[in-house]
Q: What sequence folds into this?
């Protein structure tokens, strides 16, 4: 009988919705489990296979946990502000608000069609004032504590998107993560959040959470904590000093020049008149270079001298001051001491510009007079270093640092690669920044009782250079809350990663009006127990959310240190070997397969493709096999209608009372129960589906079993398939005569331990076609384990020792065949 998926899926979706089967009672915190998948961008594109691959398996995990007795909270919402939605609006001419709300409606329908176990009472979207009001409130709390500030700084600017990008949003090739356009550098006054204040805690907290090691390593490297010494170099003829951070003060005697970032505030002050034109031209020439370009190890080094000199504090030497693009004003002090003998980058630069290279660390196994052909960067013995000669360089680090501190020209310190989070965006579709600029009072925060600052609808959102809100008279013109004089609102909007840094807290009561979120519920339900999403967010969303969570803890709103306890990364589904995109013409539309096979087949096929964290290249060749599997299941249950009513099963059976067919099926059912239990719990959906396929094959003899044992097997099969194919599972459960939905009274069958004990089998060993041994061993051993026992048998040894083994064939649990000559 053909499985009528359209009729059955609609039937159960309607049933779940009408009975509010998936409504979570948040007052019950015994065995609570907060399962969350990163929310979706309603950007104009329809839900694609990647969304299904993210949401479907996670929903299967949540359903399984519900059956295991957990009070599961699985909400869904929409990351509705930002560039994807705005770019779609610019392309189509449809207002971002209109297109976004329509897209959300379409996505909601698709998620329902998927059979998601979402608590729709907890649904939220970030583009409504009820939500973004609290982005603004959060901004003000950071501002009060000096953690939100505005400064002029070199920033990454996308000429196409007409907006600033955070460093994390620039691709490794220097392109904009949204449109791919080459990003350029600009000096602009921007808003920042002081994430650097939490650098140490962000590092330490990684030890407390169950996250993939690769993701932890990415955050560790991004934060980039390093211990070193900050050293003062006096500028000859000036009162100013250059501060240099170095992890290698032991090489200080090898400094032959100093390099400033071209943007460094001292550059034009100290440049000699005869060098000024070259310096200014050089500064202009690098403005179009991205940070990635400038720090590339393969890029040829460039730079020009300023004509000024600095004084090395350990030996009084005059060393020339250069500027070069490989030094960044925003990293460290914006200045480096160049030791070409012991730094590869400095070595290349010195070779190109014929600057001195001095050896001050002797490499083991070499002589002092040996010429350096490349920089030596490891530990060695200090030479040409005055009173420090003969010390191991790692000892010299401490000795020199100690002496510099005594002389008042240096101090040991810690440096970080992490920079403050740049949150200003010169775009329309985002949260307005709640600051007013007054000529008399300066920066004035919007009073909290005047929030939200509403994003106006009638705005020209097409980028024309600068913030679109600046040209909206009704928005930009206001009065100063302090003095009442005419003033201007801040024209920028916030980075949408602000929206996603705390949304998991709002889900618990999205209509809450007394504060940012319901603190009582947050303290009972967070941290999130299981968080699922892409690894590409390692140094953006996942880092920002950890920072904001720690800040909220510090102001007394949450009682935990981390937002997400366990993190799972799903793999990427590619097509024709490439990430799916409209421009490549390789996007796969789920609707094609939903119309042909239905939701359960499609989501189960995605799970069956391979390990969840691996993803893979899309192929629809195997989906027919999964469809066939579903058809066989439905036919089996249709042919056993109401069997559970007529022939109730026992909770467990005595193996000694079963015949061989019954015993095999009983054992296989229980083995599969244990297998599926373990595999879904560990997000190994492909092997869970495979185990159920094996069990169905075992059911070919099910009619030879007594009727109540057939009920036993079918009940357990229906339960096990229900998290993976929820509509099918419910229908099968109903067909055999169960009156309540599986999820109305959730439970999980436990495997019978007696049925999991492996029986012994006799392995017949044939050598050149003749039976030479019969060995008793546990059933279902691996081939390697069986081989070891076979070749350790004394009878077998007598026939194979000293012979050449030509071939070995193993028939599981039956025969081991050996051919020798």
A:
């Amino acid at each position: 009988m053909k499985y009528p998926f359209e009729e059955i899926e609609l039937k159960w979706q309607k049933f779940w919705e009408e009975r509010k089967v998936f409504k979570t009672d948040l007052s019950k915190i015994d065995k609570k489990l907060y399962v969350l998948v990163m929310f979706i961008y309603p950007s104009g594109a329809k839900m694609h296979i990647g969304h299904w691959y993210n949401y479907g398996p996670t929903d299967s995990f949540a359903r399984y946990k519900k059956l295991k007795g957990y009070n599961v909270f699985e909400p869904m919402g929409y990351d509705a502000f930002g560039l994807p939605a705005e770019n779609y609006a610019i392309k189509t001419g449809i207002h971002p608000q209109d297109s976004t709300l329509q897209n959300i409606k379409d996505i909601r329908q698709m998620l329902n069609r998927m059979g998601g176990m979402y608590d729709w009472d907890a649904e939220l979207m970030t583009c409504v004032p009820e939500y973004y009001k609290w982005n603004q409130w959060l901004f003000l709390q950071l501002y009060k504590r000096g953690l939100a500030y505005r400064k002029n700084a070199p920033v990454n600017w996308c000429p196409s998107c007409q907006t600033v990008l955070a460093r994390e949003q620039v691709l490794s090739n220097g392109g904009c993560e949204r449109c791919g356009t080459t990003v350029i550098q600009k000096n602009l006054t921007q808003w920042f959040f002081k994430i650097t204040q939490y650098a140490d805690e962000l590092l330490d907290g990684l030890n407390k959470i169950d996250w993939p090691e690769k993701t932890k390593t990415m955050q560790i490297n991004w934060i980039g904590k390093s211990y070193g010494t900050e050293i003062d170099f006096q500028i000859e003829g000036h009162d100013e000093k250059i501060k240099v951070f170095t992890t290698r003060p032991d090489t200080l005697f090898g400094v032959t020049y100093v390099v400033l970032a071209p943007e460094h505030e001292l550059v034009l002050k100290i440049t000699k008149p005869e060098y000024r034109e070259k310096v200014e031209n050089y500064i202009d020439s690098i403005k179009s270079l991205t940070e990635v370009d400038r720090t590339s190890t393969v890029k040829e080094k460039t730079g020009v001298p300023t004509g000024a000199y600095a004084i090395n504090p350990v030996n009084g030497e005059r060393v020339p001051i250069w500027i070069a693009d490989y030094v960044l004003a925003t990293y460290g002090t914006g200045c480096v001491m160049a030791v070409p003998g012991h730094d590869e980058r400095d070595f290349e630069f010195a070779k190109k510009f014929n600057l001195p290279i001095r050896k001050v660390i002797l490499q083991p196994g070499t002589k002092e007079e040996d010429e350096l052909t490349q920089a030596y960067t490891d530990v060695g013995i200090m030479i040409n270093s005055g009173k420090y000669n003969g010390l191991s360089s790692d000892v010299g680090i401490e000795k020199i640092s100690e002496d510099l501190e005594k002389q008042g020209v240096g101090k040991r310190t810690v440096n970080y690669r992490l920079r403050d989070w740049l949150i200003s965006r010169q775009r329309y579709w985002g949260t307005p920044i709640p600051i007013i600029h007054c000529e008399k009072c300066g920066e004035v925060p919007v009073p909290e009782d005047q929030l939200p600052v509403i994003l106006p609808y009638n705005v020209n959102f097409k980028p024309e250079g600068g913030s679109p809100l600046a040209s909206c008279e009704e928005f930009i013109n206001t009065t100063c809350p302090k003095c009442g004089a005419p003033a201007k609102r801040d024209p920028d909007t916030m980075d949408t990663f602000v929206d996603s840094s705390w949304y998991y807290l709002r889900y618990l009561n999205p209509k809450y009006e007394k504060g940012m979120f319901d603190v009582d519920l947050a303290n009972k339900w967070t941290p999130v127990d299981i968080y699922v999403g892409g690894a590409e967010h390692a140094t953006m969303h996942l880092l920002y959310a950890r920072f904001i969570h720690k800040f909220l803890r510090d102001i007394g709103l949450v009682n935990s240190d981390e937002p997400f306890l366990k993190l799972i990364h799903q793999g990427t589904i590619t097509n024709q070997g490439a990430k799916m995109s409209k421009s490549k013409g390789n996007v796969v539309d789920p609707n094609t397969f939903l119309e042909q096979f239905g939701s359960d087949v499609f989501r189960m096929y995605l799970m069956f493709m391979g390990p969840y964290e691996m993803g893979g290249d899309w192929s629809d060749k195997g989906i027919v096999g999964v469809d066939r599997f579903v058809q066989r299941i439905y036919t089996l249950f249709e042919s056993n209608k109401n069997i559970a009513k007529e022939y109730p099963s026992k909770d467990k059976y005595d193996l000694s009372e079963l015949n061989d067919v019954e015993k095999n099926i009983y054992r296989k059912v229980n083995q599969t129960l244990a297998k599926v239990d373990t595999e879904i719990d560990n997000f190994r959906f492909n092997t869970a589906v495979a185990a159920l396929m094996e069990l169905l094959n075992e059911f070919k003899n099910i009619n030879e079993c007594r009727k109540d044992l057939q009920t036993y097997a079918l009940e357990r099969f229906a339960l096990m398939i229900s998290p993976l194919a929820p509509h099918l599972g419910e229908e099968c459960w109903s067909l055999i005569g169960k009156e309540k939905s599986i999820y109305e009274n959730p439970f999980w069958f436990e495997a019978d331990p007696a049925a999991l004990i492996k029986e012994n089998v006799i392995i017949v060993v044939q050598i050149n076609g003749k039976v030479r041994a019969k060995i008793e061993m546990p059933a279902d051993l691996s081939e390697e384990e069986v081989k070891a026992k076979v070749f350790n048998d004394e009878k077998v040894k007598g026939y194979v020792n000293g012979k050449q083994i030509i071939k070995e064939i193993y028939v599981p649990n039956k025969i081991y065949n050996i051919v020798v000559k």
About this structure: The chain has 27 helices and 32 strands. The longest helix spans residues 660-681.
